[in-house]
Amino acid sequence: MKKIVGFLILTLCMLALLSVVVSAEIKTVELLAGQFIHAGTVTVSYDGDDLCFIYETVDGWELVETHFTIAELAEEIP
Fold this sequence. Notes:
Strand order of the largest sheet: 1-2-3
Distance between the termini: 22 Å
Shape: globular
């Protein structure tokens, strides 16, 4: 069950991050379980060389497994 929840959280997170433009800006988005439950945050930063993602969970939520895909177009994400 937690793996399914983790997958759903990451899927929603990836959709939210599609709007992030690669720049020196730091962007934080809400990490959701299902569609409406706040489970934490994901912070994205880019320093010119590295693209970094920091997942922070709250209220006992855990990420057991993560999968992350980066693409230029949303249609390229499986």
